[in-house]
Each structure stands twice: as structure tokens, then as C-alpha cells.
Amino acid sequence: xxxxxxxxxxxxxxxxxxxxxxxxxxxxxxxxxxxxxxxxxxxxxxxxxxxxxxxxxxxxxxxxxxxxxxxxxxxxxxxxxxxxxxxxxxxxxxxxxxxxxxxxxxxxxxxxxxxxxxxxxxxxxxxxxxxxxxxxxxxxxxxxxxxxxxxxxxxxxxxxxxxxxxxxxxxxxxxxxxxxxxxxxxxxxxxxxxxxxxxxxxxxxxxxxxxxxxxxxxxxxxxxxxxxxxxxxxxxxxxxxxxxxxxxxxxxxxxxxxxxxxxxxxxxxxxxxxxx
Length: 276
Ligand SMILES: [Zn+2]
Hints:
Collagenase (Catalytic Domain), two-stranded parallel sheet, 31% strand
């Protein structure tokens, strides 16, 4: 049985450095909406509700709320650093996924890499190969070609500029990576950027289907994290409940974790469901 779960948390705004609304859901119910006033560095809790929440309807509502009819708006999804240690896969056949509410446009999406920002311990070729394999995993599950490496860029700030970029930058330590998605009024993606946190150490260890947690000690595995982030590109959301812990779209990343290189059943079902 396929289960599409409600979206848990997302941030909506018009400027990546100033997300203005945070939504928190628990068990499919809207628990909190927070408006953040960055100018005052003040978080104002405006609303405490416990109403049934339809992720897709709520998503559209929020966009019109925040967007004021403007053409472009963005969504930010953070990949959280886990406080637990990596565990060996016990069940990646859980058939669950979350849909964010957006889709990619049909056709090929170009992506660029800023090599000037990559960690010194990983070669340029390795980074390119890792991203290539991670994209292959996602589009392979859907049975077509969606992503195309279009070259190098010097872009180092997430922005809505038609240059879908992968780069490293300083983020809060609690976050491993962040994906920013810009959408048109039909919730089709117009631009996407993924930022990997340069505050953490990164490595690349091959996954052989069994070495689930045998990545380099003290390092996040780039392919493990990239595969998850590219799941966001296509429109999949994070899952935070324990049952989903072996799926690629589980919302926490562990140091030394490799198992998310391979998609679980729910991830594959999700890719096919949101395929453009
Ligand atoms: Zn995520």
C-alpha cells in the first residue's frame, strides 16, 4: 500500500536569506505558523492551531499569502544533521513518501557546479561523478532523463537566475544541506539551488549495498546527502518518523551514512508519482 504522508515543515519566502514563514505539522495537523521578522531579529508566534491540514491545499494557500500575486517565490528545505548514529538498514521497503506540492517542468533540467567552493579533500572529478550518480539514481527510478550537467559556474549564492547550481557554503551546523526551489504560479519549478554545508567534513565512499554506515569516520558522505537533496528537486519532501529511517527521503542525515545512496521503495514510488 502506498501512503502519501502530510508535509511536516517548510519555509516560504521571497528572499533566501530572509525566510518569513515557518509551518510546523504534527500527525497531519497544523500546529504552528511562525512569522519571522528578520529586521527585528524577532520570532513572533502568531498562531497556534490544531486543524486538519491538507499539505497541497495549505501549500497553495501559503504561497498566495506570502506571494501577493508575484510570479516567483521560493521554498527552502533544510536537511538536518542527526543527533543519533547511523543504523544498518532494517526495512527500506516502507512504501511511503511526501509530496512537497511542486513538480519539475517536463524536459531536461540543466545543472551547474561551483568547483571553487568544494572541500579540499575531494577532487573536482569526484564531485562531478558523485552528483552525476546521485541524479542518475533519482531519474533512474522514474525511467527517463531529467538532469543534465551543463558546466561550471561561479555562482555562490542561492538565487532565482535560471542557473541551477550545486555549491558549498557556510550554513548553521545543525544543517547538512539546503535546497532552494523557485516556483511559478502553477507550482512548477523555475530554478533550484542546493547548498552543502562547508562547516561539515565531506567524503565519498562507495556504497556496495551492505556498508550502510561505513563511510569515512567524521565525514558526511556526499553522494548519500546529494541523492536526498535531488529528491527535493523532483518534488519529494522530508519524512521524520522512525519507520522511514532507511529511506533516502528521511529528513535526518548521519555522519558516515551511505545507505541513502540507494532509493528505498517509498522513494521510488514517490519519484514515479511526481515525475513531470
Ligand atoms: Zn530533505
